[in-house]
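To assess whether ligand presence alters the predicted conformation, the chain was also submitted together with zinc ion. Input:
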Amino acid sequence: MFIELAEHLRCPVAHEDAYLVLATGAMAGRSIRIGTIGCPVCQAEYVILDGVARFGPPPAPAGPTRAPPAPATVQALLALESPGGYVVLVGSAAALTEALSGLMPGVHFVLVNPVPAPLPAPGWSVLECAQGIPLATMARGIVVGGEYGETGWLTDAARVVLRGQRAVVLSETPQPPPALERMVAGEGMWVGTKR
Ligand SMILES: [Zn+2]
């Protein structure tokens, strides 16, 4: 996990927002290989093992995963014109990681419950969670695998995206949460802008 991501982590338990407390064990460059993350509000403690921040076991896929769309299409839909910041990829959307990082240099990718999990690399970080994306509002864009296309996860995905930035959901059935204004739908996905 990229060390600078630590300031954007949030406890997945429903309570007031607070910065989590990071203790690093082993580092590899600017990536944390082993460490612990503590919540000052509910005292929960989470581990970073093998470079993966583990906030809980990922849920079993709720539906069939489908092949992701062309990376260039997703890049165009995210509409990021400049490098820097973070893009979050949830579930099967993580299959786009290597292609998108080639298309979007300078962006750090945060993979939430990635299927398949890509090999470790400096350009991305992996988080596991059972419910609730353990991130503050910090993303310049998010791509959500269709198996996470239900209301609870989409509401949380919308929370993570910065205002005016986009969420791309790889699902046939548009069910935008209130925080997303649906823009376009088709070809097995839909796009919303954070209000
Ligand atoms: Zn907590």
